[in-house]
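Take a sample.
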Amino acid sequence: MNKQSLLVLLLLGCLTFSAAQKKKITLEEIWGGAFRTEYMDVLRSMDNGTQYTILNTERSPRSSSLDKYDYETLQKVETIVASSESVPYFSSYSFSDDESKVLLATEVEPIFRRSRLGIYYVYDIATKGLVKISDTKIQEPTLSPDGSQVAYVLDNNLYIMDLKAKTTKQATKDGSRGTIINGVTDWVYEEEFGFVRAFEWNSNGTKIAFLRFDETEVPHFSMDMYGKELYPYQHEFKYPKAGENNSLVTLHMYDVASGKISNVDLDNAYYIPRIKWMNNPDHLSVQTLNRHQDDLKMFDVKATDNSVSLLLEEKDSAYVDIDDDLTFLADDSFIWTSETDGYNHLYLYGKDGKLKNQITQGPWEVTRYYGYDQKNDRIFYQSVENGSINRDVYSISTKGKKKKRLSAKEGTNSAAFSADYTYYINTFSNAATPYEFTLHKASDGKLVKAIKDNSALLAKLEGYETSPKEFSTININGNDLNMWMMKPADFDPNKEYPLFMFQYSGPGSQSVSNSWINTNDYWHQLLVSEGYIVACVDGRGTGLKGRDFKKVTQKELGKYEVEDQIAVAKKLSELPYIDESRTGIWGWSYGGFMSTNCILKGNDVFEMAIAVAPVTSWRFYDSIYTERYMQTPQENPSGYDDNSPFNYPELLKGKYLLVHGSGDDNVHVQNSMRMIEALVQDNKPFDWAIYPDKNHGISGGNTRLHLFNKLTNFVKENL
């Protein structure tokens, strides 16, 4: 044996030894938090623009403190308030507009996804005095602009407390469970319009605008909760399914001085998804939608007499999105986002509602609006100008000039700006880099200093067998669709591998992005290490590629998206290293709806599917979400039924696993029960699991570990 051959053997031996040292990711590590990513604590910029606050907590001994930091040095300046014998442990906080007082949340418990109950205190920074708002748990306490009063909701009624006098007024008296709600939203508004607090102080604290929900005619929904007692109990709430009655929502004005409530006539508006005061304390902006959600109107309500005038109207042949990008400038002209030209862009309107100009434009989407620096006439935003799987931070003038890219690294960048827009903290990641947090100058994006990264996580992952995400596009049904694929570390192009596809596919969503991996991706890495190729493709109906691409699925949820996933599976199966006889797909929620349809309508393509918490008929889902895309079942019965998988159970040929939580208040277990019954009556073999009392997230204790053990075993046994 010559020296060269010996060297090759030694190198091969070293490589083999090195590979052998690489561990495989385990489910116990994933769900035990072994790969936990470090994040920046949530910060709030102080009005001076040079400092920010962070809530710091300790588990043992249990304590919390609200601390002030300096942007330039990142060093703590002072502790504003800390838990002690006199100050209870607090889990969140908010300032009054003048930053004289802090609202502290304690003993918080969830109601639904966003709503919370808690015991709240107001801390006076100057006097260090502490006032308890109520001995009973309340919702959504909010300080007046000058910090002298706090409004909140208790038992569906609106209350106002005078902090100096320590007296409380009950503003409304008709609130009651299951009928009238004042000042907070009902279930479906919370879930689909994304807000809970339905009251707002004006800028000088003299008026409170609030919404009133009359749930009387909304159908009643109940779920059995099994618990640990001798008898189960029913969890009951109002839930309007598609085509059913929604709450009657009305707008009202509370005068703080007199305590009088007046009504605002919005001409029987069907939805009121947003209210927002202008800078002028006598003017309130109100957004309304019709039931189809394709006609949005924004009104100017004059608080002195409740007169209403139309500021803006936007119509769409499909639907108009609701967001929080509306910003009033000093003179109450305003910045607005719209898909009017086919892509989501920024627009500037005068205070009279007349369009001044379109600020951004091009075949790309604005994805976040960060704010406006009036002093330097600069708008800050995030967009996908650098490719739809990437995000960058930009600044631009209100005239659409002097555009500047502030972020430098390719991947996903987001920003948190100081109050005066001198600084911003950039959060960056891509598929190969976990989150990095850096401080920058807002004027030009120049790096001031690094704050935190996840180099320790990267170093830890070096000891594991992992595979990179390979990004590309795949042409399907005339569209170039974004795709990622992960192949085994020892990938051999001359071998054949089973293909396991993941997707979500819901309207406007995105699963293919150049960002750090999520928890599901660690599971995908586990499967890849076991010899599977995992791929994900965003088909038609997903977001960030323009209005027409997103809204093509209108009135046909589950048609074009399913066609695309089936076509993707067929095309990928043509690759020489894919075993076309071993193709699987999985998804959660909308993704479960998709994977179920795929194994039925694509039964000659998919051999296996997993559906977790799936919708199986849009007739069972809530009104606001479903009708936005489908109109009502009465108007569009075929759109609902042609893509409802329990209507064609006879198409099932492959292996199918169905999983649901029995306590899911969002996608009710009714969906899976109807699917199960249809398959049983067609005598189709399949696997299923119900997790007692678990909600849409199916978590708690060892639940996720058990769930993913089940999913892993199903993949290994059937693909």
Summary: Residues 3-21 form the longest helix (19 residues). The mean pLDDT is 95. Residues 283 and 646 are 51 Å apart (CA to CA).
